[in-house]
Amino acid sequence: MRVVAGEFGGRKLKTLTGSNTRPTTDKVKGAIFNMIGPYFDGGIALDLFSGSGSLGIEAVSRGMEQAVLVEKNFRAMEIIRENVTMTKNEAAFQLMKMPANQAIQQLALRKEQFDLVLLDPPYAKQEIVKQIELLLQNGLLSTRATVVCETDQSVVLPETIGKLKEWKRQEYGITAITIYDWED
Length: 184
Hints:
The protein is an alpha/beta fold. It has a single domain, classed as Vaccinia Virus protein VP39 (Rossmann fold), CATH 3.40.50. The chain contains five helices and eight strands. The protein has helices at 26-36, 54-61, 74-87, 100-109, 128-137, and strands at 44-47, 66-70, 93-96, 114-119, 141-152, 160-161, 164-172, 175-182. An eight-stranded mixed beta sheet has the order 3-2-1-4-5-8-7-6. The termini are far apart.
């Protein structure tokens, strides 16, 4: 696995061995960012189920100013730290070792707002709709926010969640990518 494009493009990323994480393939990652960018002019990203940190690192590589990487697994967090160190731009990343819903609560207390949210939870444990609703209720999304959800292709998310409307849905093998933007 590697960073696909941008400032860190081509750099190899480490992944956790075993079945604890399911890294987004380079092909799917490249497709996601080509749909939503492919490059950004600043902003803050939230990678709520970081795994290896790949999606958040890709977002910063492509122009996001910062990324908050949330992961509850200790071993995965160690891999994220190594991958962030590889960027030689550690200041652009904030790591939070805790479950996603707890991170949402802490970020709400700090009144953070995100321009890009990446949701790639373990397929069997996904609560994407609930988590997007929590992000909305807590004012964590900027009015230009894009929310990217990666699920098993059999999962069909609602067309609208609060003020967010599905902009695009694409399938890649067993993976589905659903992208939400603010409803006009």
